[in-house]
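Aim 2 progress update. The chain analyzed this quarter is reproduced below.
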Amino acid sequence: QVQLVESGGGSVQAGESLRLSCAASGSTFNIGPLAWYRQAPGKQREWIAQIGRGGSTNYADSVKGRFTISRDNAKNNVYLQMNSLKPEDTAVYYCQSPIQNSWGQGTQVTVSS
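Predicted structure tokens:
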């Protein structure tokens, strides 16, 4: 099974940017698409973006135009560039392999106004 490790979270001011990374290891030969989710305190985990192995992307309306998902297949990494951050983007961010239903441990993003 694939193991996923997120990094890059932190505390920023509204309007600033962060770039999250997720490194995949283990059974990556059939990793397929990769996704980012987030979970804010007291809320359900929310899907925010997905990228296929060939680079096709989809985004939740809440982040469309501000976040960009990308991947490096050679390194088995997936990234989430987050621009124009808002306080409501505060959450723990997780990457996921939908095919293997594997999750990372999450990385905290805090946006203050």
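The longest strand covers residues 18-26. The chain has no helices and eleven strands. These observations will guide the mutagenesis experiments scheduled for the next reporting period.
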